[in-house]
Each structure stands twice: as structure tokens, then as C-alpha cells.
């Protein structure tokens, strides 16, 4: 089954404790992206990757890091989480930016709470 | 700055009626406009897209209309069903370069049985 998986689905952590949210897709997509979803603000892009070893900042990258060492994986790293990073996070993937990049496949989401 | 927005945050519709969800955009350089559906507890799911050189596109029970003159996008759902209850996002893809996709804030559609 074609899908995007995220782990963990739910996470409660404390300020300053480093964490990683994993994302994996099995569709051989070149393009991957991370979004956060907050009430009244819709989906805002954190980071994106157009292919292996190619990443760039989205609209709200502060406090986050990403890496793309393999095509299928795109982990999101919070080096020192803060309460304002409490949010619902989505990973998404699509075919290359030159094709149907707007038809993104989303993971099920990770609900993160930072206390 | 440039953004994608929606007119109605919540829309309640009787089952069987048609639904119309509206969206205003401000970026004239976008080459595609897209609608996503997000059901409770799930990630957004692609519904339909329309290229900027078109004004109408139909899918299964859905129609998207694009009015570039007033920068307005709408999603029409025919014979709305309880399974259509969800949050609907409009989005736009900027042409050229990186081709970033920007999402609106969403409209919640409630179907009344």
C-alpha cells in the first residue's frame, strides 16, 4: 500500500529535550516536506526536500532541523523543543517539483506537546 | 504578504444539498490551484486541481471554479453526503523556481443528516 508513515503519532515531552519525528514514504517520491498545523493558521511549511541531500527552509523553519540521507526518509529534528512548538505535524511527499508537486500525499500526523 | 484565504470558516449543509466552499487568493503567479480534504484525525487528502489557464474542472461529484479576474476559487460538492464532513483547504502552487505550495486556513464542512 502506498503511504507516508510518521512516528511517533503522539508525543509529550519537556522543554529542551531533543526529539526526532520520523517520516518515511514508499512511493519513490523525490519531494518531501514537513508542515505544522495550528488552529486558525492552516498548514505552514517548515522544511522541504527536493531530493536526497537537497533541503531548504519553508515558512517557519526556526527551531527545526531536517536531513535527507535516503530518498524514502525525511526526519524532523527538534534540538531544543519549546512550548511554542506544541502543534500537529504532518509529513508529505510528492513526485518531483517539476511534475505534480502539488498532489502531495500526507502522513497521519504527529501530535506534539511540549511542556 | 501573499496568502491563500477562505471566506467561511464553517459551513453547515443539509444532506443531499449542494455545498459551495469559497477561497480567495492573492498570488497572480500561481499556476495551479488545489483542493484538499482533511477528515478528523487524518492528514489532508488531494481532491482536485485546476490549472490557472482553466476556469472550470469537474471530478466525481466535485467541481472547481476559478475566476482569475477577482482571484476567487470555489469547490462545489454535489449531493453532499455525511462522508463529506471534513475540513477543506484550498492551496496554490507558485509557478517557476521551487514551485512552493501554500495552503489556506481551511473551511469546516458539517453535513446535517
Describe the structure.
The complex is a heterodimer of chains A (115) and B (113). Chain A is globular. Chain A is mainly beta and 115 residues long. In chain A, β5 (42-51) and β6 form a beta hairpin. The termini of chain A are far apart. In chain A, 0% of the residues lie in helices and 50% in strands. Chain B has 113 residues and is mainly beta. Chain B has strands at 4-6, 10-14, 19-25, 30-38, 45-51, 56-58, 62-67, 72-77, 86-94, 101-103, 107-112. The N and C termini of chain B lie far apart (40 Å). Mean pLDDT of chain B is 88; it is low at 1-8. Classes of the chains: A mainly beta (115), B mainly beta (113). Chain A binds chain B through residues 4, 35, 40-45, 48, 50, 56, 58, 90, 92, 97-98, 101-109, and chain B through 32, 34, 41-46, 49, 89, 91, 93, 98-106.
Amino- and carboxy-terminal Cα gap of chain A:
36 Å
Query: In oligomeric terms, what are we looking at?
Result: heterodimer
State the helicity of chain A in percent bands: under 10%
Helix/strand class of chain A:
mainly beta
Largest sheet of chain B: 6 strands, mixed
User: H/E order of the elements of chain B?
Assistant: EEEEEEEEEEE
* SS-derived structural category of chain B: mainly beta
Short summary:
With 115 residues, chain A is mainly beta. Chain A has strands at 4-7, 10-13, 19-25, 31-38, 42-51, 54-57, 65-66, 76-78, 87-94, 105-106, 110-114.
List the helices and strands and how they pair.
The complex is a heterodimer of chains A (115) and B (113).
Chain A: E1 4-7, E2 10-13, E3 19-25, E4 31-38, E5 42-51, E6 54-57, E7 65-66, E8 76-78, E9 87-94, E10 105-106, E11 110-114
Chain B: E1 4-6, E2 10-14, E3 19-25, E4 30-38, E5 45-51, E6 56-58, E7 62-67, E8 72-77, E9 86-94, E10 101-103, E11 107-112
Parallel strand pairs in B: 2-11
Antiparallel strand pairs in B: 1-3, 3-8, 4-5, 4-9, 6-7, 7-8, 9-10, 9-11
Which properties best describe this structure?
heterodimer, A: 115 residues, mainly beta, 7-stranded mixed β-sheet, 4-stranded antiparallel β-sheet, 0% helix, 50% strand, globular, B: 113 residues, 6-stranded mixed β-sheet, 5-stranded antiparallel β-sheet, 57% strand, disordered N terminus
